[in-house]
Amino acid sequence: MATATLRFPRLIGRIALSSLAHLGRFAGMLAEIVRGLAEVRIWVPRAIEEAASVGSGSLFIILLISGFAGAVTAFQAGYQWQTTLPVYVLGTLITETIVLELGPVLIGLVLAGRIGARNAAELGTMRVTEQIDALESLGRSPYSHLIIPRVFAATMMLPVLVVIADVVAVTVGWIGVKQVLPVTDWDFAYGARYYWRPFDAWYSLIKAFAFGLGIGLVSCYMGFNTQQGAAGVGKSTTAAVVTGSVVILMLNTLLAKVLLNQ
After folding, report:
1. What's the rounded Cα separation, in Å, for the pair 256 and 262?
2. Is 254 a member of any domain?
3. pLDDT at residue 262, as a whole number
4. Residue 13 maps to a domain
5. pTM, whole model, 2 decimals?
6. Does residue 213 fall inside a structural domain?
7. What is the DSSP annotation of 49-80?
8. pLDDT tens for residues 143-198?
9. Which long-range contacts (CB under 8 A, 24 or more apart) does 255-258 make?
10. Residue 19: inside a domain, yes or no?
């Protein structure tokens, strides 16, 4: 009976201690990243290579997903359409839905899987094969060589990919809505411009920037702290994808509250 009574408090204690340990290690990583930013000649060329790899490797899946997202948005708008409303409202509905929410969040979640899994797997493999230890033994900072370039690439490339995805999704939505409702090009363009605010574009970019930073930091942290050999690499990769996705949803809610409900 006493063992059963103590089991729950022990579980809470283990969770609390584990959370504090992760928080401390993450704060230490942030401090090392800030210190490593001074080594510009080391991380800038690597960051450019990483950004090119992230952009070129993600472009096809971004085009595919954004195209389908735009088409589905248009078809659902046609299904739910009320004839008492002017048809130009469809331009507003599709554009605002994609730019404000669907584009950055959907692309962020997809890249949390692609970029996050890649970063965690690469760094985790380096950790368990002692490549990171070898780098440190040579007096080199693994943060400027390995972590900063990956974080920078994710942070800088996600806004670029989101802009491409927004343009493609709106274009496909424009074409798709004309297949289900009598909407002219003038109607769609008028509706898209009528309710458009310049801050909408900035809001989408701010979200993309925050999502990219979150993906980069979380995935690198998980991979850098990998343990227990090959099994640990798998656990770190899974944790990076799941945690990165949760971070994106939390940031999405927080940014909507802070930036839209002023």
Report:
1. 10
2. yes
3. 56
4. no
5. 0.88
6. yes
7. HHHHHHHHHHHHHHHHHHHHHHHHHHHHHHHT
8. 888 899 999 999 999 999 999 999 999 999 888 888 888 888 888 888 888 888 88
9. 255/203, 255/206, 255/207, 255/210
10. no
